[in-house]
Automatic annotation (TrEMBL):
Gene Ontology biological process terms in this record: carbohydrate metabolic process
InterPro entries: ATPase_NBD (IPR043129), Carb_kinase_FGGY (IPR000577), FGGY_C (IPR018485), FGGY_Carb_Kinase (IPR050406), FGGY_N (IPR018484)
Keyword Repeat among record annotations: no
Lineage of source species: Bacteria, Bacillati, Actinomycetota, Actinomycetes, Propionibacteriales
Organism this protein belongs to: Kribbella capetownensis
GO MF annotation, one: kinase activity
Keywords: Kinase, Transferase
Keyword Phosphoprotein attributed: no
Protein name: Carbohydrate kinase
Domain Carbohydrate kinase FGGY C-terminal: 239-414
Family per record: Belongs to the FGGY kinase family.
Range of residues in the leader sequence: none
């Protein structure tokens, strides 16, 4: 049946993905274009122009499948930032979400407003990178601070645009007061005029030359949460790819004195608490380079749980469910064989996931009643079931578990309720019920080891 359809765009690290979906959630078309990055030690950059080329060709491919193209929304990696001139042309590369060149600027930022940033500010957030660019000689009086999704949206509508509360969070925006922190920025020598206007996700930013509305999006973690339909208290989304990201819903803002948990604004009101761990599936490619992981997955089903666990840090330092810059990977038990290594990593991620939910509930989040799984790791059926078993709650596999689809849902909700729109459009492909499992003792030993090493404070 003919009707309106919406495009969601996910501006990722390795690719741009676009999804076209109609009002009942049917995916009409999808496509992807590759992206390349430049890494040099702690530096990680992309060419903003490459985003535009990839987005233009992606939209051109999926748009003809729509009878009526009703809107576009874009998500991108959280904390990725660049400078443009006043007309919107880029003057710097994009400093990516995990670029750590400005880590030493964190102290300067905390000194400017300790109460605000002593526990929350992290060294790879956008604000330290902005100070680094200023130190490199860029005068913010002549430039605009732009997040990656903003840059692409401006390209689509032909003029600079506002940013959304989600992308603004790691640039220092005060979500409670709903304003940029002028006094703190003044101490840092950052002119307010360089920062964009901030609007709620779903606000119209402008229209394309063809008259299609472009709506303010959210960061990729929030976009995946929308795609999973985890938008009510007690429902959570766990995104597992290279690293692990958890997102949920709370009526009230959760206060985490450790700084591990931060919250986005829910477009319908309330908050989206969560955190991003430094653990995840990325360890598998490091420990088992070139191996057939699908074959290991099939073998792990026969092997079952083992009495070994690897704390699967992808790099030194942990961000969530605790903050420990000194944290390092370790192994408990015998994981000397390749299959045992594979199984021990999977169990380690599941343990961190469980610990993260326990931490969130300790802060006042609603008890976990279900978890939607998204991210590249859901291709592992064994891992999906293991996570259900370790968490002790049902896990759901959404039919379209990707951030681009979440942005199509957000675009479709413009002017209405995101929760209600997701309830109509998001479908669950299957549900995995938890089974009794013998890992509780090993989990307790794992947590005790984290404590003995001083990682949990």
């Amino acid at each position: 049946m003919a009707g309106p359809a919406w495009i969601g765009v996910d501006l990722g690290t390795q690719s741009v993905r676009a999804v076209l979906a109609d009002s009942d959630g049917t995916v009409l078309a999808r496509t992807a274009r590759p992206l390349t990055s430049r890494r040099d030690g702690v530096r990680h950059e992309q060419d903003p122009q490459s985003w535009l080329d990839a987005v233009d060709s992606s939209i051109a491919e999926v748009a003809p499948h729509a009878d009526q193209l009703a809107g576009i929304a874009i998500c991108s990696t959280s904390g990725t930032v660049l400078l443009t001139d006043r007309s919107g042309r880029p003057v710097t590369p994009a400093l990516m979400y995990d670029d750590a060149r400005a880590a030493d600027r964190r102290v300067q930022i905390v000194d400017a407003d300790p109460e605000r940033w002593a526990t929350s500010m992290q060294p790879t957030w956008a604000l330290p990178k902005i100070l680094s660019l200023v130190a490199d000689g860029y005068d913010l009086a002549d430039h605009r601070i732009v997040h990656s999704a903003d840059f692409v949206a401006a390209h689509l509508v032909g003029h600079p645009v506002a940013t959304d509360t989600s992308h603004a969070l790691k640039t220092g925006y005060d979500l409670v007061a709903d304003t940029w922190p002028a006094a703190a920025f003044d101490k840092l020598g950052l002119p307010l005029a360089a920062f964009p206007e901030v609007v709620l996700p779903g606000a119209e930013l402008g229209r394309t030359p063809a008259g299609v509305p472009v709506y303010a999006g959210m960061t990729d973690g929030c976009a995946a949460q929308i795609a999973a339909g985890a938008l009510a208290p007690g429902a959570w989304n766990s995104v597992l790819g290279t690293t692990l990201v958890l997102k949920g819903v709370s009526k009230d803002l959760l206060n985490d004195p450790t700084g591990a948990v931060y919250s986005h604004r829910h477009p319908d009101g309330g908050w989206l608490p969560g955190g991003a761990s430094s653990t995840g599936a990325g360890v598998l490619t490091e420990l088992l380079p070139g191996e057939d992981l699908d074959a290991f997955d099939r073998a792990a089903r026969e092997l079952g749980p083992i009495d070994a666990v690897i704390y699967p840090l992808t790099k030194t330092g942990e961000r969530f469910p605790f903050v420990a810059p000194q944290a390092e990977r370790f192994t408990l038990g015998d994981a000397s064989g390749k299959l045992q290594t594979y199984a021990a990593v999977l169990q380690g991620v599941a343990f961190i996931e469980r610990l993260a939910f326990e931490h969130l509930v300790s802060l006042g989040a609603d008890p976990v009643r279900s978890v939607s799984l998204t991210g590249g790791a859901i291709r592992s059926g064994y891992w999906n079931q293991l996570r259900a078993d370790v968490l002790g709650v049902p896990v759901e596999i959404p039919a379209a578990p990707d951030p681009a689809y979440g942005m199509a849902v957000l675009a479709a909700s413009a002017g209405g309720s995101l929760t209600e729109t997701a309830g109509r459009m998001v479908r669950v492909e299957r549900v995995l019920e938890p089974r009794p499992q013998p890992l509780d003792t090993l989990y307790g030993e794992f947590v005790a080891e984290l404590d003995w090493r001083g990682y949990r404070g």
